[in-house]
Write a structure and sequence with these properties.
It is a single chain. The protein has helices at residues 2-17, 19-40, 44-65, 72-77, 79-85, 90-119, 127-151, 158-185, 191-221. It is mostly helical. It is elongated, with a radius of gyration of 18 Å.
């Protein structure tokens, strides 16, 4: 656990030194949501109808912006090879880097969500469910994205390839995330959607670090 915490702290320190990366993720999220009223018009009913989908799609795309650098920087400077040879299992190292990625991307996105929900005229009944669905869904985005980030190590045009790899896997998270808010706004229980998101998170927690570690080993061997 101490080594796990050390990797998390290391990545958080690196993220703070390169603070523009996290800032750009949040700014993309904010700007992507803010642009929609200019495109569809200022009608409050229309904005309220599309608000949950817009916020979720913007959060999904914003989370993808920093995925390419999840392992790439350490791979290029040789740090990843050192992390792979330390006594701690590589799967634990990958999990620690995923936690740091979520803390520097997913958590700021959740923090910015209430303000954007007000801007998009989201009904009050959907606020709590939207934040809860993002709290369950954004870790899944980081976990799945880690597999894609590991698979593109050493490849050219990795950003495009990464998008093709992870976007199809993000669709269930998007569907049930938006569905939970729509259910709450329609007066229906959102529990089923939230339980499915929780199930996706529980399934991704052991599987994604294991798959990501396998992809990293293969990249280091080539």
């Amino acid at each position: 656990m101490s080594r796990f915490t050390a990797v998390v702290k290391r990545d958080l320190r690196l993220a703070l030194r390169q603070g523009m990366d996290s800032f750009m993720v949040v700014m993309f999220f904010v700007l992507a949501v803010v642009l929609f009223p200019f495109g569809v018009g200022p009608e409050t009913n229309i904005l309220a109808r599309i608000s949950s989908g817009v916020i979720w799609v913007a959060a999904l795309l914003a989370a993808m912006l920093s995925l390419e650098r999840l392992f790439q920087t350490d791979y290029e400077d040789g740090s990843l090879e050192l992390l792979a040879t330390q006594p701690m299992a590589l799967e634990i190292t990958v999990a620690a880097k995923i936690v740091a990625h979520w803390l520097t991307t997913g958590l700021p996105l959740i923090a910015a969500t209430p303000l954007l929900a007000v801007f998009m005229n989201l009904p009050v009944e959907g606020y709590g469910i939207l934040i809860l669905s993002l709290a369950l869904g954004t870790p899944v985005l980081s976990l799945i994205g880690a597999i894609g980030a590991a698979l593109i190590l050493g490849s050219r045009r990795g950003g495009v390839l990464l998008s093709l790899l992870v976007l199809p896997l993000y669709i269930p998270v998007l569907i049930f995330g938006v569905g939970s808010v729509e259910a709450a706004l329609g007066g229906f229980p959102a529990k089923a959607h939230l339980l499915i998101l929780s199930g996706l998170l529980i399934a991704a927690l052991p599987l994604c670090p294991w798959a990501g570690a396998g992809a990293i080993r293969q990249a280091l061997e080539t």
